[in-house]
Amino acid sequence: MARKSVSSYINIDSPIDRLHPMTKIVAVLSFGIIGFAAPMALAPYVVLLGLIVISYLAKLSNKFIHYVIPFGIPLLVMLLIIHGLFSAKNVTTLYDFGFAKLGLEGTLYAVKQVGSVLVFLGAFFLLTATTHPGKLVTAFVDSGMNPKLGYLLLATFQIFPQMQMRLSTIREAQVARGLEVEGNLLKRASAFLPLIGPLVMSSLMSVQERGMTLETRGFGSSNTKITSYIEVQDTAGQKTARKWLVIATIVVVIGSIVYRFI
Amino acid sequence: MDTKKIVIDVKDFSFSYLMSDGEMQKKAVENINFQVCKGEFFCIIGANESGKSTLCNALVGLIPHFFQGDMDGEITVLGEDTRKSTVADLTSKIGLVFQDPFNQLTYTTTSVAEELAFGLGNIGVPREEMYRRVNDVAKTMRIDHLLQKNPLELSGGQVQRVALGSVFVMNPQIIVLDECTAQLDPLGSKEIFDVVKVLNERGITVVMADNDMERVAEYSDHVLVLHNNKQVTWGETREVFTNLDFSSLNLNPPVYVSISKKYINQGLWKKEVAIKEKEIINISREILER
Amino acid sequence: MKIQFTDLHFSYPSGDEALKGISLDFSGTEPVALIGQNGSGKTTFAKHFNGILRPTSGTLLIDGEDIHSKTTAEWSARIGYVFQNPQDQLFLETVKKELEFGPKKIKMAQERIDENVRYAAQLCQMDDKLSVHPFDLSPTQRKFCTIASIIAMDPEVILLDEPTGGQDYDGNRLLEDIIKDLHKKGKLIITISHDMDFVIRNFERVIVLCDGKVIIDADTRTAFSKVEELASTFIEPPPVTRIGQALGFDETVIDIQQFFTCFDKRKKGTI
What we know:
The complex is a heterotrimer of chains A (262), B (290) and C (271). Chain A has 262 residues and is an all-alpha fold. Helix content of chain A is 71%, strand content 3%. Chain A is built from ten helices and two strands, in the order ααααββαααααα. In chain A, strands 1-2 form a two-stranded antiparallel ribbon. Chain A starts with 14 loop residues before the first helix and ends with a helix. Chain B is globular, with a radius of gyration of 20 Å. With 271 residues, chain C is an alpha/beta fold. Chain C has a six-stranded mixed beta sheet. Chain C has a four-stranded antiparallel beta sheet with strand order 2-1-4-5, with no helix packed on it. The radius of gyration of chain C is 20 Å and the shape is globular. The chains are: A mainly alpha (262), B alpha/beta (290), C alpha/beta (271). Chains in contact: A-B, A-C, B-C. Chain A binds chain B through residues 1, 3, 6-7, 9, 132-134, 151, 154-155, 157-159, 161-162, 165, 206, 209-231, and chain B through 57, 60, 62, 66, 86-89, 91-92, 95-96, 98, 100, 103-110, 113-114, 117-127, 130-131, 134, 150, 152-153, 166-167, 170.
């Protein structure tokens, strides 16, 4: 049977894949904040360049670029029109179109904003693509998260792909009862209930059995110490790296505040 | 029988489910009495809705702890009253596998190995021991080649063996299987019976509700027969099958029993009925060669 | 109705080839059983009849008309398909509405809808449950509800995917009655089943699929006499057939009655 891949995780062994999930989370946050806080318009692009290098190390540079560019270009064009042409901050004119003037201040602002968004998006993509969801949650639980919350988090990772699979079967079953799912908007809209209805009803029906499963797997056990099959390895080097990332972020944030006040 | 250790003792057990509207349903099972001894391969047979699942749920403590309703009588599992124990604590002694394989996944794991380890994690088994037990169980269940696969990519029969493995890995002394072959193809179903047989030979007590009469005859040593939510009889499989009027209970008699009963009626055979394929073949040969 | 498959191939988007060249003809109304192990391609094949899945290559003609000429929803008026899992299709608040859903979608006249729904409900023993919420039916009743919902569309061909799963003695008897009645009304019934006893009792033609190919297409008795082909795909003939084979009966025995006919013959022969 043809089944889809079950999460956004891409299973390729790489130095990035092997990093402790916490290191990656800290890195995503630091990169994002640094790109956002640094006052220079090109700062996010320096970080982005760094992300491209990381994506290369993760053997995902192709996917990374194909993920970031289609987001970046339309966003840049849109913001350039809004800010470059019409921002109130515009003082210096870069180019005169006749009907409007492209201002330097607005352009820089647009370039900076797009860069910051791309850094966040790109870093988050690399995090989810290189981090096994089980490892991520294990790392959370290891650092003190309630295991029940961890379960919920993992279940959401798994539930959407599973629903997609169900939905395609339901679609086949309803089409075989004469339901048209293609064609004009009205036809498609009227197909909504027959497609979603069985999904909801059957989810309700299976809730009980799934509850029984968890119960009989000792999920409600009074035991407090829960162990995990997945091992997440942390190293002294990574611990230091995380410390420095946090320090760098704080420095950049403070620096940018100071810069703005001067 | 007296010399054997009783591991399950059901006394005057009755149960009605509480409906969502607050009403009590009619009795799902009524006045059930039987005992299972250590090491038995015990089957529960009966038409659909005759109370098999209710009984299975009660043996592992889901009744009364998970399903609400009116429970009468007493069920003792390995000396413990199920009402006074919790399901999670009973799980280490008595495991349950049920019909729909895909409802027995935890939906939190991306590999069979993690799925098998889920229950062990919940009771705090250290990682090294976890690895060892998961690998052992995978071999027994003949799923060791699937350990790194995503459970959602497996066939129903394979998932059912993962479910059985997830239960067996907890080292229970008893395993309850509630019609766990009903949705499987013949090969998948045979593989389940075969691995259950292996577990049974290792000393695990098996309680299995199933409607495949030939398989029940072939594998079990004791049966309990339910009809209309009541108990018809229980005892050694051969004895019960010799005297049972299958069709009045909406059951198909195993073909081995039907053929040997006909031999007996025609005066061709004077000993006990056959309940296994090999037996009926041997009996038939013997008659033909006379 | 004449259904012709010629060198049908089907591959899933993932690239797995599930059907590897199937050529089969269906005409007349003799009930057909499709058997084979999990992954043999039988469900994939069955989903081609009304175009739920479309061939990657090869042709499928229905009364000379190419399958691609219509949508599945359009074909469904002539060829019905009952899915294995009732949970994949039930969503309305009463059984009656479920039964009326298909007929309405194919724009059947209201009088015919009433008539067909009444017939389907009666045949599937749903007539006293028309106002019940499908949610409140037992799992086996839910199955009969989905079977009735396709019968109510009055198609000429009905495919049943694994209707015997989870059924007990009574359920199997009811299924047999349904198949007999539809056969009498001139419908072609094609059923996927794992229950070999059930196959033997109700079907005249048996098609065995293995690894995307047809390995047996024969009348039931002949099909079950091909012990080696069956074993290669891990299908066991029913117990009574196996016993007959072990005793070396020259006929393929498919029920107890026939077993004793052969048995008596052998016994007299030896006396």
